[in-house]
Amino acid sequence: MAHLLTGVRLLIVAPAALAFAGWSGMGLLMPAVFVAVAIATDYYDGIVARARGTASAVGMLFDHATDFLFVTTCLAAAATTGAVAPILPPLIVLAFAQYVLDSYFLLRRKQLRMSSLGRWNGILYFVPLVVVALARLPVLTGVEGMLLALAAIVSWILVLTTVASIIDRALAVRTA
């Protein structure tokens, strides 16, 4: 059941990216719908896995990889519209690759080794998407400029915290 929830998030990556890129075939509500589904499935998949006793290192990798694909793809799509910092998606790719490589290969662990800053970044990568989705809602006409400015500011803050996370992880591996 937990993998099914994660799988739903994986299935919506491409249409969500189209919605965040402003594709005319998607309605104005679709970015909000996709990000709400992504957040809900991300929240509940871990709860379901733990409640059913099916939590595993493979499930954790599937969940984190799906989160990575969703936020990176949607942030890249939003960056094409100028809504978020264009450097953020490539930095997330670098940070996620480092996360996987140092967990499995450098530290030779059998599961991902999370850092506190990396965990918070993973959660906060959804924030610019939520703000961009809100900016596109017709009921918020008149404040969309302010919301898009907020999304841009948050994305630049995430650029800084992602760089800090990459440095922190590199130093932690070096001392481990």
Give structural notes.
This protein has 176 residues and is mainly α. The protein has a single domain, classed as Four Helix Bundle (Hemerythrin (Met), subunit A). Helix content is 77%, strand content 0%. It has helices at 2-11, 13-20, 30-52, 57-80, 88-106, 116-124, 126-135, 144-175. Helix 1 (2-11) runs antiparallel to helix 3, helix 2 (13-20) runs parallel beside helix 4 (57-80) and helix 4 packs antiparallel against helix 5 (88-106). It is globular and about 50 Å long.
- What is the architecture at the second tier of CATH? Up-down Bundle
Largest sheet at a glance? none
Distance linking N and C termini: 36 Å
| 3D shape | globular
Kindly state the percentage of residues in helix.
over 70%
Overall residue-averaged pLDDT value: 91
Instruction: Give the beta-strand count.
Output: 0
Portion of residues in beta strands equals under 5%
Based on CA atoms alone, the radius of gyration comes out at 17 Å
In total, how many domains does the architecture comprise?
A: 1
Which CATH class is shown?
A: Mainly Alpha
User: H/E element string?
Assistant: HHHHHHHH
CATH fold category name: Four Helix Bundle (Hemerythrin (Met), subunit A)
Coarse structural class: mainly alpha
Q: Which stretches are low in confidence, meaning pLDDT under 50 for 5 or more residues running?
A: none
Q: How many helical stretches?
A: 8
